[in-house]
Batch of 3 targets.
Target 1
Amino acid sequence: MKFLMMLAALSAGLMLGSPAQAQDNKIALKLFGQNILEGYNACQFALWQHNRNPKKDKYSYVFFAPFNDGEELPGWMKIGKDVIALSRVDRIRAGGQRIEHIRLYEDKESGHRVLMEFKKQHLSGDDIIIDDAKLTIIRKGRFPFISNTKGHISCPQLDHQSAADAPAPAPTPSVQQARLSGDAISLSGPQEFSGLKGVPSALLKALRQQAPNCEPQNTPGFGERYAISSDMTLWALPCNLYARTGTTVFMVALNDMPQHGVVLPIFDVDSSEERQEVPNPQVISRSAVLSFTDWGQDDSCGIHWRYQLRAVEGEAVEFQLLEKRAKTSCDGKVMEPASFPLKFSARP
């Protein structure tokens, strides 16, 4: 509501002036295409003009934000000849697998703000399809510019087809393959807590019993919790601090019995041993995917993991390995962990 009141006040102020002043005060929004995206084809939040198709039209995009390990990076918009970077500044978070009704983005350097209103949306597999959205672009001293759009939040490089429809990928000698069990789920948006504030004492007691090497009391970091359902919560508890990283332990608790929290183990495809601490984890709420990287002696080698929290028999959940990538040569050539050579892949 505050955003809408601000927009109304700004609009009223800008409507005063002569026709010549109006011409000077327009926001010169431009459409852009693959020439700006530079072939980016990973997870993305994209909006395009409502009567255009990015697969057919050379210029169609109004807004584009890439994701890196589940984190939405600043979005791009073209104003005149400049590509500006807009960061999200509101704190509204939608529950479940959907996008919020309103979002607010800002570029402090150029002074642009973008109010996004999402009117219609639906799910297609793991993708959120935006059927109808309105963008209001604001800059002090300029008329607000309104753009009607469509779009999606999607991971094009992932296989969203069902097991019955999707052809099996061609195996290679170096890549292990397996099938996932149980059912995919989604989580609510994260709710942050500082240190151990908000963590039930009974849950911490269960943590000490099941993960005795974890020392959350010595970790002044932030934790998060996610609603799995109305009855169950996933807790991401800060665990230990090391020279290069901090670790997290994931627990599940029933909301009416938090004293019975359970640490979720993480298993490797090449070993029966379980791990409990994961370094610098990233969680994608809508697909319940956890990713993290075990770095080698420097940032040019390591192992990248992606797990998915899935519902299994017995009204339980467990992390199942989706993907394992490894770069064993510490050759000084730095690359994104998601581009490491593939060693293991699982599908429904």
Target 2
Amino acid sequence: MSESITKARHRAARRPSTPLTEFACAASEQMGTVGRRTAVVAASSGLMVSMIAVPSHAADRDAAPALAAVDTAALTASARAVLNTSPVVASPAEAVFTVDAPVVTAEKPPPPPEPVRTTRAASRTAERVATASAEVASNPAPQSVAGNAVLEIAARYVGVPYVSGGSSPDGFDCSGFTSYVYAQLGISLPRTSSAQRNAGTVVSRADAQPGDLVWSPGHIGIYAGDNQMIDSPRPGKTVQFRSIWQSNPTFIRIG
């Protein structure tokens, strides 16, 4: 009994065929004759085909020839199904993009506030001048003041208020006033009235001259002649010319 052996014939191996490869093959056949480059990208959500024509002799975009059409009828049913379900995005040739920018309005800043102007109280100097004017009007300086260095200096401070312990134009007590006036002439007197009582020579009332000191216990001033004196009397008063009020004062000549 003979045995018949028939050799099997095998089909040559070939690349697997899928909708993607069929679509790429058809697109290549359509584009090959016009020298186009075709890029095919497949994604799980669909299929996108992009064809870019790059003619070597094109001068500008408007002069480039139109792209060749792809015959989708030659595609398999699977490839057409993928194309049909893929989103189609179209844009006009002259697309205009606009951006909504917020409107910025520049407002003029408010003017700076006007500086607060406060009326300053009259200075002590102004008050002294006004007071001195009133004092001079009510108690005019004696004629003996003119030409007498001591009285001319003393008269400058008419209106300065009495200040206990004061010895400057900001305020005088009685002995602070006399010592300050004499100091302007280079004569140094003791600070207290009792010490000034012994700083010079005692003269009689009849021999007293303008510029001598007029002393009484606890107080001292400067004789202005004609039974007048200039002194810093007491708290609430100011330097002024006035009549000698002491019944028996002591007159002291300095120098």
Target 3
Amino acid sequence: MRPPHPWLPLTVGAATALLVVLRVATRPELFDRVWAEDGAVFLHDAQQAGAVSIGMEYAGYGHLVPRLLALGASALPMATVPVYVVVAVALTLGLLAWFAAAAAGSLTGSRLAMVVAGTSFALAPALHDEVIGNLANLQWFLLAAASWALSTSASRLRWGAALVAGLAAATTPLVALLLPAALLLHGQRLLRLPAAWGAAVGLAWQLAVMTLGSSSRREPPARLGEIRSPWSSLLDHVDGSPGDSLLAVTLLTSLLITVGVALVRHRDSRRLQLSLLLSVAVLGVFMTVYSGRLHGRYVAALLLLALVAVSCALPRLSRPLTALLSIPLLCAVVLAFPPSDYRAEGPSWRLELESVAVSCRAGDPPPPIQLSPAGWGSMPARCEP
């Protein structure tokens, strides 16, 4: 199925990149903060090891895309790193949104599906906490893009799907959890899809990094928190206002109704819908069992995957029902648009660099640079010429 408008995916991708910048800009201080892993792991390793850093494991696996972007940051003046990271993330998400919109068009032929699929990379409500605007959490967006790549079989997207699936798998091994859903959707035809081979190459890279790669030189301290039920965590993170679960319940209910109606009324899309729901279920169960709770970034990943299913379901609904079910989603988007101040709790990157410069001018060893959020560690500083 050809998309309804050939330029719409590109437009959606550009709008998504802009929305990411605007969303971060609602907290201007975020342009003066560097997230813990971004500084202590990716930037530091890129400064110390150069291109070799792309083959280093952190937290047990490889992070190819964040490490590639960190190489760019390492070549820039240190003062520009926070802004560079936000812009690099926005452009990356814009490209992923471009592909997602094109994939949605190939699966549904619907402009609405294309817009929802692409802009979800910037507007999904659960991105409000720690997820958006840093390198470390790009893997969750790549995971959603890989779901689109493994769902579409459009010949004109085959090499783009292979690239997206490969980069996603080389960034997070969780792409392997999407393969059962892809097998349910495509059956034996999965072996002929370039996206499946791209995912296989990316997972082979992961295996090589896990077994042969050197470990990251630095890791920020783990954040210890109260262990709570997955449902309680879900309610806290979906709507952006912890303790107020009404909107979260309404939003989740509307998502379930959207997909449910499509399953009941449209047999031609049942296999697609069931495969997408299976990916959400498998990933959700794995994350809950592995971590004991659904952290904000996990909820964001699950919501992004759920929105893949919703994007494909919306064109199957009547216009009145679509409008009715869109209301809680739009309310959640508006309320959660400003990211939380959690990341802004950390120290100013500019002030940290000024302290380093003072020590360097005095001939003293520079103090380590403290990172964001507060208490999430530091990275060694060096005197710049």
